[in-house]
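job 3f2a | input accepted
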Amino acid sequence: MAMRTADQYREGLRDGRVVYYRGERVADVTAHEELRVAVDHAALDFVLTEEHRELAVADDGEGPYSAYYRVPRSAEDLLRRSALIEASTAAGGTLVTLVREIGTDALFALLRVLDGEARARAERYHRFCRDGDLTLAVAQTDVKGDRALAPSAQGDPDLYVRVVEERADGIVVRGAKVHTSVSANVDELIVLPTRAMGPDDADYAVAFAVPVATEGLSLYVSSYAAGARDPFEFPLSSRHKMLESLTVFDDVFVPSERVFCCRRTELAGPLALTFVEYHRFTAVSYKLPLLDALVGAAAVIAEMNGIARAGHVRDKLARLVGYAETVRGLTELAARRAQLAPDGIAYPDPMTTNIAKYTFATGYHEALEIVQDLAGGLLVTGPGAEDWASEEVRPVLEKYFAAAVPAAERLPMMHLISDLTSRDFGGYQAVLAVHAEGSIEAEKLQLLRAYDARGAVAYARSLAGLD
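job 3f2a | predicted structure (467 res):
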């Protein structure tokens, strides 16, 4: 096993992968003016293994490897994983790197659900990725078409990824996935079912892994948040970016060794839900630095504006703190309530994990409102980088935008808050809060499904004298 450096990670992406961005084929994602921002952001994960080895590197006696690949066996393992995700996201300026977090979530799900030769393939693939220190994306969400129809009932059969041919040495797949995070800047892509499948949907019950540079695989990267950015005006989004893609499989051949599920409809639902059990825990772990940033920015800008002692401001800050620390406490509790699968693999308590994610998602937009309220209208009417750099304009800005602190301190904090809450980076985070890792409705369904109501029902009946 060999730990890679950030430069070795970048070199591994120069493999001829098919990536389109803003209507054009990208020859090298590491050299593209905009896409390389996402590559550099993801490379922070490799810097972390050098600067925080005690947290980011594991060693079971066979040599060091990324701690993301450590299969959790206890609550303590899950707590360490959460701390690693939080540290990586904090280094990433509130944006998760996700190049190993989501992929290992999928690997753990495969190890828990599969049996027989399929399980053995997943184990070998886990070792392959671990020992090669590879980065992984997960393509789960199909484009779906008409949501009221099952995969096999769609007018176009390719709206869910499906098996179109079985061969002695593998399978051929066709279709498309969407919202595939970090796909353009990782080594490998794991494909999972997006939902439970009925008997007629057998062709769509498929799970496999391929290198990103596989013939027939094309990535169409979203242009959201496109454009070069000045660090003064965009302190976060000028340095941190995540790529999302429409991921198209045009008769892609997958060798048998990389096929984990083929036409086994009984595995589709368990694979989808088990992945979510890990991935929502990853989600609430990587949201913590974002919540810390909102609390800290709100407190700082209130001081800078000279309003920190006002009663309504203190009330708003208290609500922000309570919100952030509730999510943090629930995240830790989900790990401490860890459950063990029959083979000894630990997973976070599903009910608590979904309560944590639901609490985050339903409280996020109110949190943004509080921070924007305390900051003021300069979030959208303040001066830009060119104004601040102008020898003629800057003295005017320094005179009129000073408050309890000089404009040279206040305006950068305003731009940070604007990047976090008002501009496209903030919009990206706000949509993620609602939809990423499953919708709010999905979280409610899962927490109800995981809650054992028998004790509470029996207690209520006894209090009423019914038993």
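job 3f2a | The chain has two domains: 6-264, 268-462.
job 3f2a | closed
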